[in-house]
Design goal:
It holds the Pfam family 7tm_4. This protein is mostly helical. The chain is built from 11 helices and 3 strands. Strands 2-1-3 form a 3-stranded mixed beta sheet. Helix 1 packs antiparallel against helix 2 and helix 2 packs antiparallel against helix 3.
């Protein structure tokens, strides 16, 4: 315990296996590779569609494109290393790489939480103040909100990473998860981590729970402000995709981070859900429920075949 806090004798950590047998590891490698490739393709397609189609140059789709970029980054923080571990007998990660993975995991994850909250505000203005929507949600404000989301994620992640790196790690070095995250890593510290855990739960748990409460309050306000049943159905249909994404993302995050860092066996499966599966589902949720995005994707697909781009733009404006 007398060891200085800025030194760590642990040079690497060992990660848990998702499955105990080589045969099942190979099968899981194929499944997760398909999921990761689908995540890359789906989110890249949404970013390309939003940036290239003039019909989608609105605040809503500007935020959607940024969400897709965050989803792509979020999955890339953990998925490539997990895929390599499926093919390895000894799943290890260096101390420096573990801290880097932990930092980017919380950086991108917190930025996505803040961005989802911004998207809820966008929907509130669009539905409750439609006449003032374009004056309120202008491109400058949207850009500042996205920048604030990234800045908030960076500050949150710096706090988490610095608190973790200040802990002494002198063994054991087996992380009870498939990647480096704060709860399983700080359990390996050879010192009392009660105060650090309390600070981290206050940080991560407060952010995830507060954003979720704001989101629920925003959608509740939307439904209360709209009097007619038909208007409520339309508003709920408009926000349903966002609500689905919010539930898939915030539910696991609150379960993992808004409680003391006691490790449960189900934690690993929950971590896989919001780190690997959810980033793949978001493009499907938004495209399957959004006629404008599907139409824009069809135009993008035929853009290299037909040269009638201006005609598409006119039809878009008229609609």
């Amino acid at each position: 315990m007398s060891r200085t806090l800025n030194q760590t004798p642990v040079g690497k950590f060992l990660l848990a296996a998702l499955s105990p047998t080589p045969q099942s590891q190979a099968a899981l490698f194929a499944v997760f590779l398909l999921v990761y490739v689908s995540t890359l393709v789906g989110n890249t397609l949404i970013m390309a569609t939003v940036s290239s189609d003039p019909c989608l140059r609105t605040p809503m789709y500007f935020l959607l494109g940024n969400l897709s970029f965050l989803d792509l980054c979020y999955s890339t923080v953990t998925a490539p290393k997990m895929l390599l571990d499926f093919l390895s007998e000894r799943r290890s990660i260096s101390y420096q790489a573990c801290m880097a993975q932990l930092f980017f995991l919380h950086f991108v994850g917190a930025a996505e939480m803040f961005l989802l909250t911004v998207m809820a505000y966008d929907r509130y203005v669009a539905i409750c103040k439609p006449l003032h929507y374009h004056s309120i949600m202008n491109r400058t404000l949207c850009s500042w909100m996205v920048a604030a989301s990234w800045a908030g994620g960076f500050i949150h992640s710096m706090v988490q990473t610095i608190l973790t790196m200040r802990l002494p790690f002198c063994g054991p070095n087996w992380v009870d998860n498939f990647f480096c995250d704060v709860p399983p890593v700080i359990k390996l510290a050879c010192t009392n981590t009660y105060v650090v855990e309390l600070l981290m739960v206050s940080n991560s748990g407060l952010i995830s729970t507060s954003c979720f409460v704001i989101l629920v309050a925003s959608y509740t306000t939307i439904l209360v402000r709209i009097r007619s049943p038909e208007g409520r159905r339309k508003a709920l249909s408009t926000c349903a995709s966002h609500l689905t994404v919010v539930t898939l993302f915030f539910g696991p995050c609150i379960f993992i981070y808004a409680r003391p860092f006691s490790i449960f066996s189900v934690d690993k499966l929950v971590s896989v859900l919001y780190n690997i599966i959810t980033p793949m589902l978001n493009p499907l949720i938004y495209t399957l429920r959004n006629k404008e995005v599907k139409s824009a994707m069809r135009r993008l697909r035929t853009k290299g075949i037909t040269s009638r781009g201006k005609g598409n733009g006119l039809r878009c404006r008229e609609s």
